Automatic annotation (TrEMBL):
The chain crosses the membrane at residues 132-152. Residues 268-280 have a biased composition (Basic residues). GO terms for biological process: protein folding. Residues 1-20 form the signal peptide. This is J domain-containing protein. Keywords: Chaperone, Endoplasmic reticulum, Membrane, Signal, Transmembrane, Transmembrane helix.
Length: 295
């Protein structure tokens, strides 16, 4: 599952790209930022242009209004009005264009982003609800996909192991009543693996003489708890608040269960239980299939 962060980052990157501000948005934010810094946070383009009907004005009235304002504030009349006139002109340009006016009205209603020089531009202290919705949707899709893939992988690994056990049992002429030694080779030069079928259970003989049971039950079962959906909040909890909270009884029970799930490892005459978390052993079948067993 480790490789999944790459496509996820790609998707997140794409989403932030889609939500980057356009030139006109940046222009709007800049002007709004300037006039609200100068005239107070309640200032908006409609008030700034002193439109008699404010937001009820149509684009013709807005253009006409600029002509009226320029009689008073044109820089030709007084050079000190140069900056003010530039702003009046730009606000008029934005509001007299219906599509740009829609953009302005949207932010006027939902709030403008803040400007932070250190962050290199405008940013939202609160993300647009639409963005949250898109991110949540992608997050859910990724997690469902991850869970489905883990189920598919689990099933195919399980059936490979079951097939392998079946193949071994077919070689067992004691009919599951005795002990049958087998050698598993991938090709002629292969040294081979020694297998034992003991009362219908198939074991791999390790070079050190110990035996490992081959069983599909030793595979980790797919679980929602292994998806990011659960794992990321869980690991955040573990490295923050979880550190200060001692193990609960429930966790102890889980640990015990895990021990119980562990397979029986025969070493000489002593039977040990090992945690199911131990590494998997890879083995290739004659037909090219790969099976996994536990060490
Ligand atoms: C409004 O502005 C946009 C982009 O700034 C431009 O593409 C469009 O042609 C303008 N519409 C009118 C009617 O001027």
């Amino acid at each position: 599952m480790k490789g999944y962060w790459k496509p996820a980052l790609l998707i997140l990157g794409f989403v932030s790209f889609v939500y980057a501000f356009t030139t006109i948005e940046t222009e709007i934010f800049q002007l709004q930022n300037e006039i609200s810094t100068k005239y107070g946070s309640e200032m908006n383009f409609y008030k700034f242009l002193k439109l008699p009907k404010l937001q009820q004005s149509n684009s013709k009235e807005i253009t006409k209004n600029l002509r009226k304002l320029s009689k008073k504030y044109h820089p030709d009349k007084n050079p000190k009005y140069r900056k003010l006139y530039e702003r009046l002109n730009l606000a008029t340009q934005i509001l007299s264009n219906s599509s740009n006016r829609k953009i302005y009205d949207y932010y006027l209603l939902n709030g403008f982003p803040n400007y932070d020089f250190h962050k290199g531009g405008f940013y939202f202290t609160r993300v647009k609800p639409k963005t949250w919705f898109v991110l949540a949707f992608i997050w859910i899709v990724i997690n469902i996909g991850q869970y489905i893939i883990s189920i598919i992988q689990y099933r195919s690994q399980r059936s490979r192991i079951e097939n392998f056990i079946d193949q071994c049992k077919q070689q067992d002429n004691t009919n599951g009543l005795g002990v049958k030694q087998l050698t598993f080779k991938q090709n002629e030069e292969d040294e081979g693996k020694n297998l034992v079928v003991r009362f219908s259970d198939v074991y791999v003989m390790e070079p050190d003489g110990s035996e490992t049971l081959i069983s599909p039950d030793t595979l980790d079962k797919p679980s929602v708890k292994k998806c990011w959906f659960w794992k990321i909040p869980a690991s955040i909890w573990n490295i923050t608040l979880g550190r200060f909270v001692s193990d609960t009884e429930e966790e102890e029970i889980l640990k015990d269960n895990k021990k119980f799930d562990g397979e029986h490892v025969k070493k000489g005459n002593t039977v040990k239980r090992r945690s199911a978390k131990k590494g998997q052993k890879k083995m290739e079948l004659p037909n090219g299939k790969v099976i996994y067993s536990r060490k």
